[in-house]
Amino acid sequence: MKDLATRLPDGREVRLVAEAADRLCCGVVILDPVVVRENPAVWEATETLGRQLATELSGRLPSEIPGLAEARTLYKSFGMDPSRHRPSSEALLRRTLKGQDLYHINNLVDTCNLASLQFLLPIGMYDLPLIQGDVTLRTGLEGEEYPGIRKGPVHLAGRLGLFDDEGPFGSPTSDSARTCTSEGTTSLLAVIMATGDYERAAMAENVAVFGQLFSKFCGAREVLQAVLGGSG
């Protein structure tokens, strides 16, 4: 039987509700501590991967790139139009294939972008102490929304979202201003999202690679990894 919940080291729980379990597989990672600093090495790694992807995918439309189908199918299964609300992984790839540099924010955000490009999956990343109580991944109800980072409200009615005791704080498209990482972040929760048909073994590998990247570029120590949902 596949796991639908995991217990964090501090006793809190991350849970995938049953109504979303057939549509969602997610990798959960807790990293503590992390060190926020400027690290050009992650920019170089991202540029190298970007050149590799540009060579491999030259001339293809996004709809013709097999790796993007996973996130697009996830969006459609939760009533989201991936052409209107692009998965964060697809938005990163589009910039890369156009030869545009990704924004350099800090080593946490930059490393998360590198991982998202590598997996071609959306990844939510949150400042762990700013999350209140347990975390639930579910479909949003009418009126549920949150202020996005550098944008207006992110509406979650009928769409996949992450919720804590204070309400929604994340989705596959945009993280929230309330729980976003910053220069003062010392520990974080990351959630890698894919469809319910995604192989658990493949997600476990993504989780392991995510931890390795953050160890390399952010001085992170991984204290928890788990896979919720998925097949196999």
Explain the overall architecture.
The chain has helices at 18-21, 40-56, 66-77, 88-97, 107-119, 200-218; strands at residues 5-7, 13-16, 25-31, 123-127, 135-139, 145-147, 153-155, 160-164, 167-170, 188-194, 222-229. It is of the alpha+beta class and 232 residues long. It has one domain (5-229): Phenylalanyl-trna Synthetase, Chain B, domain 3 (Phenylalanyl-tRNA Synthetase, Chain B, domain 3, 3-Layer(bba) Sandwich). The strands form three sheets. Strands 1-2-5-8-9 form a five-stranded mixed sheet. The chain has a four-stranded antiparallel sheet with strand order 4-10-3-11. It has a two-stranded antiparallel ribbon with strand order 6-7. Strand 6 and strand 7 (153-155) form a beta hairpin. The longest helix is centred in the last third of the chain and has 19 residues, at 200-218. The protein is globular, with a radius of gyration of 16 Å. The mean pLDDT is 94.
Task: Produce the secondary structure layout.
Elements: E1 5-7, E2 13-16, H1 18-21, E3 25-31, H2 40-56, H3 66-77, H4 88-97, H5 107-119, E4 123-127, E5 135-139, E6 145-147, E7 153-155, E8 160-164, E9 167-170, E10 188-194, H6 200-218, E11 222-229
Parallel strand pairs: 2-5
Antiparallel strand pairs: 1-2, 3-10, 3-11, 4-10, 5-8, 6-7, 8-9
Helix pairs in contact: 2-5, 4-5, 5-6
Q: Can you give me a brief rundown of this structure?
A:
The protein is α+β, with helices and mostly antiparallel strands. Helices cover 32% and strands 23% of the residues. The chain has 6 helices and 11 strands.
